[in-house]
Amino acid sequence: MAIFDDEPRKKPQPHEIGQDLALLSVGELKERIDILRAEITRIEAELHAKGSTKSAAEALFRRG
User: How is the chain split into domains, by residue range?
Assistant: First the structure.
């Protein structure tokens, strides 16, 4: 907690890899699963985009 109002407050991290889960409620665990699934979807989309870019570049250089 900030001592003075003008000090920035640290946001709690929604999930930390390796964190002790024993103290979390069922609702908190489900919330973390949803957060992690959304992050996996975002990462997979980026991976797919990078793969498409790489394939396009390889096709361009093969033509020449």
Answer: 26-64
Residue 10: which of 1, 19, 18 has the closest Cα?
1
pTM flag (> 0.85): no
Question: In residues, how long is the chain?
Answer: 64
Q: Which residues contact 2 (CB under 8 A, 6 or more apart)?
A: 8, 9
Mean pLDDT per segment of 10 residues, for the chain of length 64 residues? 66 78 94 94 95 79 72
Beta-sheet strands, E only, within the chain:
none
Q: How far apart are CA 64 and CA 61, in angstroms?
A: 5
